[in-house]
Amino acid sequence: MANMMEEFEALLEESFEMDTPQEGSVVKGKVIAIEAGQAIIDVGYKMEGRVELKEFADPGEAPKIDVGDEVEVFLRQVESSRGEAVISREMARREEAWDRLEKAYADEERVEGAIFGRVKGGFTVDLGGAVAFLPGSQVDVRPVRDAGPLMGLKQPFQILKMDRRRGNIVVSRRAILEESRAEQRAEVIGNLSEGQTVDGVVKNITEYGAFVDLGGVDGLLHVTDMAWRRVNHPSEILSIGETIKVQVIKINKETHRISLGMKQLQEDPWDLVGAKYPLDSVHTGRVTNITDYGAFVELEAGVEGLVHVSEMSWTKKNVHPGKIVSTSQEVEVMVLEIDSAKRRVSLGLKQTMRNPWEVFAETHPEGTEVEGEVKNITEFGLFVGLDGDIDGMVHLSDLSWDQRGEEAIQDYRKGDVVQAVVSEVDVEKERISLSIKAVGGDKFAEAVGGVKRGSIVTVTVTAIEDGGIEVEYEGMKSFIRRSDLSRDRAEQRPERFSVGDKVDVRVTNVDSKARRLGVSIKAREIAEEKEAVEQYGSSDSGASLGDILGAALNKGDN
Prior knowledge:
- Residues 24-90, 108-174, 195-263, 280-350, 367-437, 454-522 form the S1 motif domain.
- By secondary structure, this protein is of the alpha+beta class.
- The protein contains 9 helices and 30 strands.
- The strands form 6 sheets. Strands 3-2-1-4-5 form a 5-stranded antiparallel sheet.
- A hairpin with a 4-residue loop joins strand 7 (122-126) and strand 8.
- Helix 8 packs across helix 9.
């Protein structure tokens, strides 16, 4: 009997375990009534429970539930204090969803969902019962400013990461779009070929070019391929939304990058450059760009030449090109060189004007007197500003006849206006030599122009000194030493002369370089004695020196 009772209890307990569902599991039930915003569901086993109608609604939609419908619910508790089962449709959907999503994640399949809320850093997505996080960077291939049109819309997503234990799911809409876009790009690119002309819509403009939509795939139209002429910014000739014709220049099959061109559909102006712009011809152009090394001048649309800084001015050697020309300025230039292979034209600005050194040489031959301002003072001379914005140099040796150059230059200051004489013009070396001391002529040369060594001239005594006397001839000073004052030693006394005395002297030396005239009374007396002896006899004839000199003097008196 005892054994039978134990078996009965075991069977009864097993029956209870089979008939009563386990808490925390999903069970099937039937809607038997809808009242007060709730659905009353019979889950069997003589148990009923209530579920809010909103748990049967998808985000943004009305509840989809009617009496008689069979639904799955999550049994949270077999019996509450009211004697009802505690059930949840939402939790059942979540459990169901997690099973489905884990399988999709493992198989790398897409899942369907709807964005229903905004949170920090992104959005929340309902994946049919499970809530996932959609980062802002994964919404679209480009930043989305307004996500309103995407809210509540059922669409595919890719699961990036999921953790059931923590209840975390991260999804991406961008991955779906990129995959679709890649397929579309591959199809469009497959229909394109290099050299083909197609229509496109300007989608975006940057500093370096524009992105053109070719019908599902973008191509880059670089700024250098927009026109043959220089384009500073693509917005000069393009606007977003504009439809343009472009040529496919290059297609990279691996990266799916497409290079486009507009200028390739136009005639290349360089084909006619050689004929239109012969060497040494002069043309008017517009300055388009200025750099440290020169200025670019546009001769026509698509044809630019460089005026190197060395070809900009005859006189301004170390000046930035921006000090000589300005952007958009119309200038006359000369064609110096054409390299069609490299598409380069060398231009000259200064060649359109005459060389100022040539002009100066023509208008100011050597010996011409000029006037100018002292521009600079150096250790070797002065630089004087002249006509034509050029400078001439006065060397130290050309500052004064009487002073050493180092002393004479101390008398000059920048800004002084000076008179000078052109002594040399070297056009090739662009050098002009001037002389300040030559202004008014060379007094020494004029004074001694007809005087030679041995000449007898008359000088005026200007000063008496212990060592001799100072005399003057035609404004030129000379000094006669005591030993040269007389042939007779007794007469070699300076004091026997007076200032203002006129004295005949013999020229012993003419030093043009040192500008000195050497004179001597003694040399004159010796020369006169020699001449008298030759004319009137010699001491061998018996005549005394006194007789000879007396005869010479008498002849001179007659």
